[in-house]
Queue: 2 jobs
Job 1
Amino acid sequence: MTRTVTIEKKILEKNDTVAARVRARFQSENLAVVNIMSSPGAGKTTLLAETVKRFSTSIRTGVIVGDIATDHDAKIIEAAGAHWVVQINTAGRCHLEAGMIEQAVAEMSKGLDLLIIENIGNLVCPAGFDLGEDYRVMLAALTEGTDKPKKYPGMYRACSHLVINKIDLESALGVSGESFEHEALQTNPKLEIFRTSAKNGDGLDRWCDWLRSVVNEKG
Amino acid sequence: MTRTVTIEKKILEKNDTVAARVRARFQSENLAVVNIMSSPGAGKTTLLAETVKRFSTSIRTGVIVGDIATDHDAKIIEAAGAHWVVQINTAGRCHLEAGMIEQAVAEMSKGLDLLIIENIGNLVCPAGFDLGEDYRVMLAALTEGTDKPKKYPGMYRACSHLVINKIDLESALGVSGESFEHEALQTNPKLEIFRTSAKNGDGLDRWCDWLRSVVNEKG
């Protein structure tokens, strides 16, 4: 087991070096960058498509979409009106790394205000890889069950913000967004939390207001 | 990138050697072994608890529960009446490996008919690691969206059987189990598919009948 841990450390150290370079580039362009992580099917793509629609021309938003395979999500987000979209296919790797971001932004459009990175659907490894972002956001679906914050503490602690999505299913599930929030705060008391339904629009105004404030921080 | 791929190959080769040893042990004990994989929150634990309840004394079932942290799931499955339960905490690793199974079964109860391995909630890496099992089963929740088979083809192709769970939410979601099944078969036409609600019991009889047949194959 020890040998494998050493290998992982080396990979993470290499990633940190690249991430610092990527972050410096984003800083020099005054670009706000948010890395969104979640389980498969929690609703990242729908949330991002709805976010991009609301920003329209007011905030010029770019999106990097990470997936194992397909460009399905990139097409949806492009159709929603994102100013720049690139799809990364990891061909079996379970997380994005800073080197993939560096390649992806090599030909990025100029003049973007906000770059959102949609990470691979996985609650484990993505938490370990710095991508040069300003904020890490965890997206949880209410359907996943309120035990998940305790079961995936690394992810919940790696993030400063949590979106609890699919709250439209509260009554069908018999689970409240409030109880999920309570569990999440037990794992990470510093989380700032949004409750949303990307499907019917509930809670999206507050979420978009926060993203606007992230852009404004960059001046 | 090449360097990393080489490391992964080495890890997988080492895993295959251990898996062959674990499989030989299971064969010598006529033990049927099923490896269940899914996203976080798809319902593995509830399905297994309900399965174990139904088998009661007719099929002596052991369960290995993989998690990043906590023994929450092991307690639930033990309370449901499993004959032997062991929790593996991977401390941040996103999949189970054959070496972990070998350690876990070192002190396994004698006389089990069936061993179910509940893998880490992750649709990527667990697909690559042989655990010495007879069958690999993928559990998908209807809530994840019908695009998932195309987006995680490695997992869908690594499995011979698929359980589509949470079908009680069909009307709340506006998504049918049939449409999910259709998408899954496009990625892997050989999948044998069950549709279940572990919550209300729908479809569990057919699932349990299949597990019984797996036990009977061992004679």
Note: The first strand of chain A starts at residue 32 and ends at 38.
Job 2
Amino acid sequence: MKVAVLCIGDELLKGAVVNTNLTYIGQHLLTMGIMPVLSLEVPDRPADVTEALQYAMNHADFIITSGGLGPTADDLTKQAIAEYLNCPLELDPRAEQAVRERWYSLKRGELPLRFLNQALIPHGAEALLNECGSAPGIHIRTNTTPEKHIVMLPGPPAELHPMFDNQLLPILKAHLDNRLHTRLFHISGVPESRVEERTIPILESHPCLSVAYCASPEFVKLFLTSPDSLCVESAEQAVRKEFFMEMLSDGASTVAAEILHLLKERGATLALAESCTGGLISELITDMPGASAGYLGGIVSYANEVKRNLLGVSEETLRKYGAVSAECAGEMLSGIVERFRSDCAISVTGIAGPKGGTPEKPVGLVYIGVRCFEQSLVAEYHFRGSREQVRARSAATALNTLRRMLRGEKL
Amino acid sequence: MKVAVLCIGDELLKGAVVNTNLTYIGQHLLTMGIMPVLSLEVPDRPADVTEALQYAMNHADFIITSGGLGPTADDLTKQAIAEYLNCPLELDPRAEQAVRERWYSLKRGELPLRFLNQALIPHGAEALLNECGSAPGIHIRTNTTPEKHIVMLPGPPAELHPMFDNQLLPILKAHLDNRLHTRLFHISGVPESRVEERTIPILESHPCLSVAYCASPEFVKLFLTSPDSLCVESAEQAVRKEFFMEMLSDGASTVAAEILHLLKERGATLALAESCTGGLISELITDMPGASAGYLGGIVSYANEVKRNLLGVSEETLRKYGAVSAECAGEMLSGIVERFRSDCAISVTGIAGPKGGTPEKPVGLVYIGVRCFEQSLVAEYHFRGSREQVRARSAATALNTLRRMLRGEKL
């Protein structure tokens, strides 16, 4: 099956919004072993939408669009595509009821007629109900040979995600020519090239297996795909054995989620003392729903006086070794454990840049302390890249170190 | 001038990377009054690249590509485009020198021949030197009628940004048929529809002016564009008058940057007490280089015991009103000011969801306290949306409130 993605909206081309819908769609198609053959972003203009649709239909048999389904004047996707395919729009009774119910639940008074436009569906198409918004999605099968599918999804991510998962995925699965079996693993703390090397023997012993890798500062995603379910099962066992220590548990899609899971399992608590990461690690952890079960909180000690007064870093350490030193990271670590009485803790101090580096302490020098019950360690790192990258790599390294210690690795 | 963007890389279609290059290019073109007519993402396959290039050339006269210029096997952009245009690749002496210097600066031993491939440039094209990486960019003028421009930029954002700013922008400006004059304003704390309404009279009195809006939780960007410099100047005065209180200073591109600027101006310091935002506000502030000038740090008081022990919120307040209450936000605010001895402070406590809401205290209920020297206030908000949106809106509202108080508004 060949899939193309078409995202509609001036805001994407003006750079007002990052196209996370493409990312979401791409990630979720990959779990079925599918990579889109292309993606397009076009403005809210009917001619641009239909020309791009034509181009996408020349290259794919499933076209997923996002955006332009709402009730306002610049929402033209549905009209443009219906006109292009020569399908008149008709009021869909199920969609009309859902749109009406949505309006009255918002308690905004009388329903404006324009709002009902959202329940117009091209003749012969299927409405996909919207659990988190008003505009329904639309599934059209063209009467061309070969038949093509066009699935229109709403632009807001909060509406697109559940509609993709609950309504589009089953449609895609039903049309997969050869049902593909897939597995996804998150491997943390190993560079992509090493993951690739260590996967080669598994590939060699599983001839009908294909693999894909996606790297981020946090981890490498490893996808296994095969039309043969036994092959995928056997490869899965081999991958689990090879990456036993580095793999996140099933169900955890971030290192922070894995840490919260491990903390819960052990009834343990966590506190943070952040300097150069400035709250980033705390933000990554509290981004997870239910973080409050194990995470107590932390201190962002950006200024030296905060390191001294709130974390108890000694005047002498700051004078003799400086705030960016293993000694300071160690004292921040014991200070935060003492004040928060937590079982686990992380401390980070470093130079994120772009300024503030010296020949002895260059930009990218970061000290990370991690405590896990009785075990503590402080290590020195040299991260390359921009301020943002140094901060992201510091956070990823700190979290992964704690994860490994919580799993009982001796570091 | 019509511009199209073509981003090359499997990782974009797999959802491993969000296409922030399109966002960057879109934002910066808009400052010249240009919105791309379309954008495409394609895999690392020569046929996909050249087909997409053909489609882009049918719709635009300036095509900007990103990605696929590096030294590895999947970097095929340059070869594919050169072959498609029938331009042989030649070693460019200036590019060769830069590539060699780059390699030796990395101190990785002998230069592998493959690395020098990066200095191959299509015959007749111009190499754009890469300040932050090894692969040069390329500017080709086609020998078609009308002439088209193809500018290839490297994929890593840290390399693309300076090359776009310092080398591509001057080329674009030189080819703008009618030089456009533009202004950009950041307007914070006003919904997009209100910005639009309040701009109508200015548009009516400036017939050759066009405007564009881009909304985010943080602010609305307002762009003015006109071929007539006097018209833009006069409209600028009118916009400055209309949005005097709500506009960020020139040079500040985020509310956090504006706050750091205002703190510096007054020699003031800031500390944060975050609960439901969990470090997000701290992260936004420390994302700015030089944040340490005014920002001291903060306490993330996720657990109630941290609110009590580290911020001095009273047992009685927590029992009687709960952690999500105006009373608790007020005590968090005075607690953080006392402990950090800061001139300004923000406190946030609320229910970000998706769970934890009750009929009396639903998801999205957030209390925000802000102190600016002698002035303090605590207000109640009801934010809609996902956990992520509630957190983002809480952070944006808190920062904007402090900004307004620092500017001397009476709230």
Note: Residues 264 and 404 of chain A are 15 Å apart (CA to CA).
